[in-house]
Amino acid sequence: MKTLASTHHAFSAAQRQVDLLEDPANDAPHFADRLRDAGLGTLTATGLDTLQVNLGKMCNQTCVHCHVDAGPDRKERMSHAIMEDCLLALDRHPFKTVDMTGGAPEMHPDFRWFVEQCKAKGVHVMVRCNLTIILANKKYHDLPEFFRTHAVEVVCSLPFYTADRTDRQRGEGVFESSIKALRMLNAVGYGEEGSGLVLNMVYNPAGAFLPGSQAGLETQFKQVLLRDHGIHFNKLFAITNLPISRFLDYLMKSGNYEGYMEKLVSAFNPVAVEGVMCRTMLSVSYDGRIYDCDFNQMLELPLSNGSPGHIGDFAPAALLDRVITVGRHCFGCTAGAGSSCGGAVV
């Protein structure tokens, strides 16, 4: 359980980020104004397809771009009671997918139980896996078999298809461990044509720039990983880094903040607005609070007035067409081809 002091620290950190992003002295336009200028009005939800559940902030890695600020020293994790509340929400609304994230969600002691309970309700389960967790400890070595048994979609993160760029972002030896984990997943059928076992990959840029063409990156990743390592996977998701937490710290320390925000704003694509993830998703924090998306969760931006604030009070009717809470960070999801937890949206 978090102490009052740690709760205050987390809230203060989130508030400082919001204050920086929304500072009136910031030359970047407000996202809501840009929506109106484009004739799109306010951003509203169009349904509830995905329940994204953050099981906690503990992770075996400390990545420089992490918007969750996760790491080995983070102790926050979802209680069993809140997991039960999430399962009750699945009974109250026909969600299609439960998207489990963290931290490293596999480090939660009730992770496997939660996967099994969700699958028993007939819901598709996705797990966002950093790959190295599979090799981090013997108790995780059978994760590929567990994933296969329950037909879990594995969404794994690999910054690049070379060791230097991957290790620069995630730490020495991460690329080698990731390749070993990918081979373990391939060995049980993941990523193999006709297996039905989905292995998707996530690419995040390693600096203050937008991702290139998702289709082009997918082709490059598939060619190089197959040629050099014999690795197969299904799709690649190119996700824009949002100016939140560690990536925001990097932008500020490197003097790239203003320039990066200019890139996001100038690349605003009204067509991308239709497919942003917040319109069909509900994001649940480890403490049970609910948000429009994972990024709003990290900035502590609550749902719009009138919407329930905790998964224990989940009421579909109050959430299905809610107004989405927006801020300048939202330019990250609408730049270029757009960006969501499933990659480009255009």
Structure, briefly:
By secondary structure, the protein is an alpha/beta fold.
Provide structural commentary.
The protein is of the alpha/beta class and 346 residues long. It is built from 13 helices and eight strands. The protein has one domain (27-333): Aldolase class I (TIM Barrel, Alpha-Beta Barrel). Strands 6-5-4-3-2-1-7-8 form an eight-stranded mixed β-sheet. The longest helix has 18 residues, at 4-21.
CATH-defined architecture: Alpha-Beta Barrel
Strand-residue proportion: 5-15%
CATH top level assignment: Alpha Beta
End-to-end C-alpha gap: 41 Å
Q: What is the overall pLDDT average?
A: 90
Write the layout of secondary structure elements.
Blueprint: H1 4-21, H2 31-37, E1 50-54, H3 80-92, E2 97-101, H4 111-120, E3 124-129, H5 133-136, H6 143-149, E4 153-157, H7 163-170, H8 174-187, E5 199-203, H9 214-229, E6 236-238, H10 245-253, H11 257-266, H12 270-273, E7 281-284, E8 290-291, H13 294-298
Parallel strand pairs: 1-2, 1-7, 2-3, 3-4, 4-5, 5-6
Antiparallel strand pairs: 7-8
List descriptors.
alpha/beta; eight-stranded mixed β-sheet; TIM Barrel; 346 residues; 13 helices
